[in-house]
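Lab meeting prep.
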Amino acid sequence: MPLAIDSTVKNNSYDYFEKALITDNGFREYDVRWLLGKEINANGFFLMGQAYGTYAQERLATNRVVVGHDFRKYSQDLCRSMILGLLATGMEVVDIGLALSPMLYFAQHHHKCRAGMQVTASHNENGWTGIKLAHNLSLTLGPDDIQELRQLVHGGLFKSGRGLYIQDFNLAHHYAQDLLQGPPLSRPVKVVVAAGNGTGGHFAPDVLRRLGCEVIPLDCSADWEFSKHNPNPEDMAFLHDLSKAVLDHGAEIGIGVDGDGDRIGVVDDQGNELFSDKLGLLLARWLCPQYPGRSVVIDVKSTGLFLKDPVLQAANAEILLCKTGHSYMKAKVNGSGALVGFEKSGHWFFNTPLGRGYDDCLVSSIYLLRMLDALSTPLSQLAQQLPKTWQSPTMAPYCADHQKYQVVEEMIRLFQQQKEQGVLIGGQAIDSLVTVNGVRFVFADGSWGLIRASSNKPTLVVVAEACASLNQLYDIIEHIQRVLHETGLVGEYDQQMPPRPVSF
């Protein structure tokens, strides 16, 4: 008999050890995430192993699975519970131990294994946990697959068998060799590498040194309390620390990696924080002329500059818009045959012949460093070649999981009305709406604002870009915050714009 599922199990109780705590809100759009002790326990991870082991045999036609985990004080124990569940279904488990999420994706190719499970909460705060779930090579489960997995968990009709456990704790060696197949840099680029004391600190500095960089580590030591700040290179506090280190050491670039090593955040040689969508545009300008006719995928949070860039147009690079989310982006890049895909959050996806189509902070870092080496131009000067726009940070106001999609639907209806009524936002009327993922309202000059539901936390996502002025950016953000506040369902923001300047 499968473990009894109870979503109300108390943390400090006998039931905590005898029942499976696992709540439905953890089954999100493209991975699964819960608060440990409140929404899932170790028995819940055992059930997840049983469910995915069954899914892998029935849907992926394989009985082999690669597993790994990130650097959190509870991740290894939860991974072992999950492994027991996999073994109970008769799966052959290849355990790679402490690893970045892209190391798991690489391990699937290395071991020719279609199934994979990575225990990670990515950049979420301590107390969060979750799993990234493979759906064949270089792909991860999407929303329909996640819901099928949820039904398997509740149905309890799991495969049964005697599994096999194999350790491959030498995977990091093969991973590094694969990354460093090309020639070393022609000169020792001086780079600050920041890991927020997460998993990336164990792997990134060594690989970049072997590439030929002079590496200055920042918060690369082990500290699973994340005492300084969360390992999230979209957080402004993370980027501010990175900026200071770049200036203090006279580095050419600062690269921050997130908690499970699939995203980057970047600071240039002048200490300027460059959002990853504009940085992606610089890379696309360098790569696309080398591979003319190949498309580029961007997510709905990315700068509108991609859509009218003359270098990309000359390279006949079609720009494809995609929902935000690593599973959506991987599927779009692989399915369309695009050369590369960029998310504003720092997930970048390099496809054949540049990569295997999955997101990897080190693959991204290596191509960025090779671009700087090849062009012999400071990153700050390359950024100045782009048209000037003003961008907000990515902001996440609290909104309960069971209400956030309702709020987004309300926002879609509201902005449709405001478009029809000619409502002015910062003196401009809405020219068009993009509703592929939330609502992105666009003005005639290319400026825009976006509201969407977060796929991995009980929050919304708010982003904006202005083409006219900083003043316009504040007008857009303040309008968004006002209409969200009026719903009565939106709470505190994780970060805010700095105070509006008195004059411009």
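Slide two material, second protein:
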Amino acid sequence: MGLRRFIDDRIAPHFHKGGRLERYYVFYEMFDTMLYSPSQTTRAGPHARDGIDLKRVMMTVWLAALPALLFGMHNVGYQANLQISDFGYDPIPGWRTELVLALTGFDPSSLLANLLHGAVFYVPIFVVTYLSGFLWEGLFAWLRGHEVNEGFFVTGILFTLILPPTIPLWQVFLGISFGVVIGKEVFGGTGKNFLNPALVGRAFLFFAYPADMTGDRVWTAVDGFSGATPLAMGAAGELDFSAGLTGVAGTSAGVDLTWMNTAFGGMQGSIGETSTLIIALGAIVLLLTKIASWRIMLSMLLGMIGMVLVFNWVGSDTNPMFAMPWYWHLTLGGFAFGMVFMATDPVSASMTNAGKWVYGALIGVMVVLIRVINPAFAEGVMLAILFGNLCAPLIDHFVVQANVRRRLRRRGAEA
């Protein structure tokens, strides 16, 4: 109450109509509504009374992604500390190394050491993303004369979790700027974009700076590390898919890679995408709160499984990816994260119930096609979801037209 009273009595009058900072009201409102619910109420009917609004939806998605964030920081630190202490790699020189060394050292068995080492890489990415994003959001709101909404609150956290931990911070600024401006604001802002802004930003970085977004040196925060990503290992025939749930599947810089490791997250990768189990916790939250569509998640999973079974049945003597089982596709790369947090974006996904089934299945099939058939892209989830975003309006159009024709036939039969 003290903070609320201080804001209302000392700060707000300067930004409201007649105040000396009136022209900057949108920036005040942006930070005020981050702390408290808007004071405005609906004055004209009819209207529905509900306990949830855009802010509550965004907060729920943010909290659902929090376990992946925390585990991602720990895993970034763990992978780095493991390579430093057990395999002799050098830390990346700079203030990060000095801070970790002074506070905890590089002990992979220490939870605190792993979290701190991961935090010194993740927190700067987080800060640059949110400062840059809110700068663009506030600028466009100011120029258009409307309030800043909370849409970027989720875009920002998702963008940070699909980046490698070693990405240069200037590229973080460029990526999120491209995602917000080109992927959303030029189409009118939150609710009007037809592409997922976080994926648009990552796609820009992927094609503009591929050496910093993919390859064998971007996934572990140590100096001189070289090791193929698990999907690249699969494409090269270095994974033993028949090893089952516990057998050794391959080796990445001295670390055994098993299916259980990929499911629990004990491998290198983008910050928030490594642990399928942790991502599943976020999925439960989004499904219980009915914020994410279970139809999209299930159809994307079924589409992936169906396409994988086709490739498993066809087989290939030259392409090892034909033999990869569906449960490896589920835990490798960003499939689980994309299925839970990206494909279910309510703005860029299909709106109709029938369309959601087609939309999700299309993405699942496209992921496998890109991973197995296209040798240039070992991942595929980002491109598949963006392709699904492009097709979503067309899918909904055909669904609506089919419903119209069905109703017209029904009326004709009744007449």
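Talking points for slide two:
The first strand starts at residue 90 and ends at 91.
Strands lie at 90-91, 222-223, 250-252, 255-257.
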